Amino acid sequence: MSTILVIIALVVLVGLYAVTIYNGLVKARQMAEEAWSGIDVQLKRRADLIPNLVETVKGYAAHEKTTLEEVVALRNKAQSVPTGDVEGRAAAEGQLTQALGRLFALAEAYPDLKANQNYLELQTSLETIEGEIQMARRYYNGAARDLNVRVESFPSNLVAGQFGFSKKPYFEIANEADRAVPTVKF
Question: Which residues form a coiled coil (predicted)?
């Protein structure tokens, strides 16, 4: 009788331990998804500013059509990446960031544009959003790291495998060329 009670107690303890691990994995997954949502919101805010910025620059630098079209095309490309494709979105957003850098570099050749209040406000807003994107990205990568550690660590990896938990990719710049400072030629 006492052997049966010990076995039942052990089964209950193992079950409670598995439930605790499962709940921790669910929490880590939800934190990563919430963090991705934060990045998505900031990227949407940036994407919403771009048409206004392009229109403002277009009035001063109409002959810079190629750069303006590139920014719009890359914005549309970034917006069309499926929601769950972190790596694809990171690559598209990296290309967009480079194109925006070239767009801001254009302003150096147009003193009237640099002095335009609307342009300055858009540039300030975009710089603020870029900072918020960086913070959101760090938060997401931390949440993804926490989930990934749980998914790979023993014994939680046993529970993770049983219930289909998987690692989250980091939101980072994949292409080394995207990390470089853009070259601007006039």
Answer: none
pTM of the model: 0.77
Contacts of residue 141, Cβ cutoff 8 Å, sequence gap at least 6: 170, 171, 172
DSSP 144-156: HHHHHHHHHSTTH
Judged on CB neighbours under 10 Å (0-12, 13-18, 19+), 90 is: buried
pLDDT averaged over the chain? Answer: 86
Residues sharing a CB contact under 8 Å with residue 19, sequence separation 6 or more, in sequence order:
none
Tokens read off for 152: 């790979």
* pLDDT confidence band for 63 (50 / 70 / 90): low
3-state SS track over 105-151: HHHHHCHHHHHCHHHHHHHHHHHHHHHHHHHHHHHHHHHHHHHHHHH
3-state secondary structure of 61: coil
Query: Of the CATH numbers 1.10.3720.10, 1.20.1440.20, 3.55.40.20, 3.50.50.60, which one belongs to the domain with range 31-179?
Result: 1.20.1440.20
Q: Where are the domains of the chain?
A: 31-179
Residue-wise pLDDT tens digits, 140-182:
999 999 999 999 999 999 999 999 999 999 998 655 554 444 4
The pLDDT of residue 168 is 94
